[in-house]
Design brief:
Distance between the termini: 31 Å
Order of helices and strands: HEEEEEEEEHEEHEEHHHHEHEHEHEH
Strand content: 25-35%
Radius of gyration: 22 Å
Shape: elongated
Structural class: alpha/beta
Number of helices: 11
Helix content: 25-40%
Strand order of the largest sheet: 12-11-8-13-14-15
Length: about 350
């Protein structure tokens, strides 16, 4: 099953058939098999005839299928097997291939997330922190990560700047101490405030996080060299603007502004109260080629940490598949022009 492909601009000789390329799992077929293969990126070296495919292989729960073997995969173009050099197909996970990723984590430390429940044993914020730590523990090698927090008093609290010291990043996340003003009961401040005025500025936080990512792609060599770039966001989607139609238009404009940076946005939507704004998060993921995960407040807070860890697994367990192409597909059309024949 083909979800999409993203090749390099310099890839011209195979562009005609790349968009029809797919991976199938003939060795894993069966009535109960609901595995999905999502092609994330394709590169082709015409001189070496070397094809490289980056793909997610996911089970019915959306988790990576592990321990795939070369015999489990078949490369097809337009529904027909691609002619490969026998024995040349190899595959390994992104972490084993040491393929780096760059990630910005944007988390909420708003009043809604801070409020504890169930006899003060849990709070959304505590579970969110545990989830981010689990996510960070999945990163390794040349991966780079930055962590940003936002709440009612700030839209861009840089908790950990882009770097690869993941233990330090974990410690920084665990040490987040939001401004005490966020935790105050507004009825005790002596200042009359409208509830809308107490809402965090989510879109501003998102814009600043994207801008920070973009700047580092331009200036930070390690961030720039990462083929895969992700913004991972957990939020209830609430914003001071309080107008879903305006927020939706703002999302579209934001994604268009940073389309060249190729940042995919994974979002976790969770709200302890109203879920009216979670659609904003879904629009972010859908518009950027990312993944939206909804957590119902009826399902329990323990799903939060597991969801963060699952995202980390998915990013690090993407397969890198390489193979030598024996023969390019023949569409029966005459190639004309020196550039096309090159």
């Amino acid at each position: 099953m083909l979800s999409g492909w993203r090749g390099k601009k310099g890839w011209r000789t195979s562009a005609a058939w790349a968009c029809l390329l797919a991976l199938v799992l003939p060795g894993m077929a069966g009535a109960d098999n609901e595995n999905r293969v999502l092609v994330d990126g394709v590169d082709f070296d015409s001189k070496e005839m070397l094809l490289t495919i980056h793909a997610d292989v996911l089970d019915v729960k959306g988790l990576p299928v592990e321990n795939l073997q070369p015999g489990d995969i078949e490369v097809q173009v337009a529904g027909k097997p691609l002619q490969l050099v026998p024995g040349s197909l190899e595959l390994q996970t992104a972490d084993k291939a040491q393929e780096p990723i760059s990630v910005v984590v944007l988390l909420s430390s708003s009043r809604a997330y801070m409020n504890a429940g169930e006899a003060e044993k849990f709070s959304t914020f505590k579970e969110e922190i545990a989830g981010v730590v689990a996510f960070l523990q999945r990163l390794s090698g040349n991966d780079t990560v930055a962590v940003v927090s936002y709440n009612e008093t700030t839209a861009h609290d840089l908790v950990y700047p882009f770097a690869s010291d993941f233990k330090q990043a974990q410690q920084s996340v665990e040490g987040i101490n939001p401004n005490a003003e966020v935790l105050e009961d507004p009825t005790n401040t002596g200042v009359a405030k409208k509830e809308a005025g107490l809402a965090p500025d989510f879109m501003l936080a998102l814009t600043k996080a994207m801008g920070y990512f973009h700047d580092n792609v331009e200036k930070n060599a390690k961030v720039k060299s990462a083929r895969r770039r992700y913004l991972v966001v957990m939020s209830d989607g609430k914003d001071k603007k309080n107008d879903k139609s305006k927020l939706t238009r703002a999302v579209t404009k934001l994604l268009e502004s940073y389309s060249d940076t190729k940042i995919r946005i994974f979002t976790i939507g969770y709200s302890p109260d109203t879920e009216d704004y979670l659609s904003i998060l879904q629009a972010l993921s859908n518009g950027s080629g990312g993944v939206y995960t909804y957590i119902s407040n009826r399902d329990g807070l323990t799903d939060i940490s597991r969801t963060w860890d699952n995202i980390g697994r998915r990013l690090k367990k993407q397969y890198v598949i390489t193979a030598k192409v024996a023969e390019l597909p023949d569409w029966g059309e005459r190639i004309q022009g020196k550039d096309e024949a090159n």
